């Protein structure tokens, strides 16, 4: 039986691919840890002396929008985000994302209509643009431009945490150009978590394939993102108030993505 020894160049390419994949898995783990760390804990139980009726603990009223945004999403292990088999099952029919009206002077279109599907179209466009290149500095600029006053800080976003963790672990500074590294995010699925305030508030989620290509060696993962959005009268913006609960990360089209409620998107010409 004959065997061949990989060339030094092939071994180097393999090491790069393994490194990129390992860093991505670690970065996903960091985001999941942060997700659990920011989940509100139930108040501790209190006990009353014998013969004394327990006193109810006063709680602040929670409005509909806050309750919708903070309701937890399904949690899956990091491995669910890795490429694996597709399923023929569905969580429902495709969601048609409207075509945005052409508007100038903005990288991210504001031409989506005042509907939940329009909000999902806006977030799809926002995430694909903000993640292009995989630079947290780019995401930060896009977020700040698209957030209303008193919106959650961008540093708490799951996507920002993922990009920052990836660059930290790969030894690449924010804003630094890395020759041979390309990063893209292609949204293929989404879900509408719900709406409030007569449809002027919406929580929507995207699920897409985040792909890293480093000097010819490519790897991908399924990454989700949920945002609470507010209709301003002319455009969708990241809403003030509570941050939307972190999205479920799963390989698009897998049984896990269906279990999480993601549905295919009909982009209908949206950029």
From TrEMBL:
Keywords associated with the record: Membrane, Transmembrane, Transmembrane helix
Residues passing through the membrane, by range: 17-34
Extent of Low complexity compositional bias: 48-59
Sequence segments annotated as region (Disordered): 40-59
Domain of life: Bacteria
Protein's name according to its UniProt entry: Uncharacterized protein
Protein source organism: Amycolatopsis plumensis
Lineage per the UniProt record: Bacteria, Bacillati, Actinomycetota, Actinomycetes, Pseudonocardiales
